[in-house]
Write a structure and sequence with these properties.
36% of the residues lie in helices and 10% in strands. It is of the alpha/beta class. It binds alpha-D-glucopyranose (GLC).
Amino acid sequence: MAARRIPMLGLVFLLCWAATTQAEYMKYKDPKQAVNVRIKDLMKRMTLAEKIGQMTQIERANASSRVLKDYFIGSILSGGGSVPAPQASAKDWVEMITTFQKACLSTRLGIPMIYGIDAVHGHNNVYNATIFPHNIGLGATRQAQTITSLGFLSLTLYSEIMIRRDPGLVKRIGAATALEVRATGIPYAFAPCIAVCRDPRWGRCYESYSEDHGVVQAMTELIPGLQGDVPPNYAKDFPYVAGKNNVAACSKHFVGDGGTQKGIDENNTIIDAHELLGIHMPAYIDSIAKGVSTVMVSYSSWNGVKMHANRRLVTGHLKKKLGFKGFVISDWQGIDRITTPPGANYTYSVQASITAGLDMVMVPYDYPAFIGTLTNLVNQKVIPMKRINDAVRRILRVKFVLGLFENPLPDPSLGDQIGKQEHRELAREAVRKSLVLLKNGKSSNEPLLPLPKKADKILVAGSHADNIGYQCGGWTIEWQGGSGNITGGTTILDAIRSTVDPATNVVFSEKPDADLVQSNHFSYAIVVVGEPPYAETAGDSLNLTIPEPGPSTIQTVCGAVRCVVVLISGRPVVIQPYLPVMDALVAAWLPGSEGQGVADVLFGDFGFTGKLPRTWFKSVEQLPMNVGDKSYDPLFPFGFGLTTKPAAAVQN
Ligand code: GLC
């Protein structure tokens, strides 16, 4: 009897061993398997609840381990200004994300969540991160003299030359940004914004590189900066992320966000298909060719059809015609805003958006309502399982490509990347190249710039001279930005002080009165004024005027002293009335944390090279007015920018 039992025991042991081994080996967990094989294996194991959970992105503020596990949440975001704590360190971020991720990994299938954030000009939510110039400034960093010297160049060909002539700057910014984002444990950035802003009255015009799609197309170089270069022979139109020092990118906002009437944010873009495809679509083609991982849908409408409900463009064009294989994400409460008022018919919002082809929904708060509504729509066969499977396949594809299954947890070794000096030097270079010199001297033979470093006494004046928050603009620490020392960096005043000769007496007054200006015999004055920070709809402006005390500071100072005005703004603003009193005018846009870049060029350590990425109007009555328009009568045309040689070159 005992002898007979041994083979039986052996068989039982063998079966248990086989079962255990089989249970441990799941194809989707095997990195040696092809991505599509892993997706297929994982999807066949997923329940409807697990699939819909993957399509759900919630705001950090209402995430918890319990919620993440109970609802199988696939993604979390930080909205503008949403941080673990004020001035949170990289370590604080890493701890928070590790906690969330471990909760997701503890679910039945252990699918890692993807955490997204608006790193749109550096890792701008994070205290002491390097803040790069906003996109409008980066759009100015191109060599437009190519087109003027060659004349006949088409804008598309010109944009190719622009990449060649300044190939690396935007790409290097992307790579530096990716490192700072990864330093906080985050693998996904909602950038680049590839809006083609056609009317500067739009509050988001500074998020747009240019009014010209050729410039915007060239600036999609940010994508390989963030994600890494797509290798040769890589699958066409497939998302690509090189590794742990890179992040998934997001081209936004699809499509026509920058073309709304009067620049009204989230409004209606009323143009024909030729203009939509010719102006607002090209940069998406570049994005897909560069392996962009995700695309975010615009709040706006095209000819009255909400983009979040536009199946023809999201599924028909982006996914089918252009072959995009990453995932499409909504904007913040973007599906709620399909209806007026928002949320008026949430069932319709869910049905219309998912049917249109959206794959992930930035809910971001009422996830029970989203999940419940979508579940009902699938169970009622209003939304076919095929559509859910397409969405989940795309989301898993990005997560596999991103390496999240192999490296789901943050890499704490990158902590020192936040605000790294090397990144700040890069930002300083970008500031230098973004400055556009619009006037230099009241007559061409008496240029004011470059300014002498050695002078008896100089005046620095204006609301924006000593204010990091103002020089960074919106989407900095807070969604709407802020005033004062909101993060680390160098103000323009500090930069001036450290650049001039030690013997030069620098007097600073935010709002000098006539007495001070006239009684001090200043050698010259630098007046730094402009717009206060804003983001999105809060920035919409029908008059585009510089708010007081900017204009009166210009008049008071420049009326009595030779002056250069440095304009801090997210777009062209009304400047013509003050032009005659200025000796020089520099458009500095929203330079970010490295104000030293402004002083570098003002004092001639580097020459002015920037070119207008947008038309500068004479009056708002002319708007919209863009390069190529039949009636084109600008104050300063697209591509305009005076140049100066570095002071050293002039002396030689
Ligand atoms: C915002 C913006 C979008 C951003 C998202 C998340 O409303 O439209 O650009 O990525 O919400 O913050």
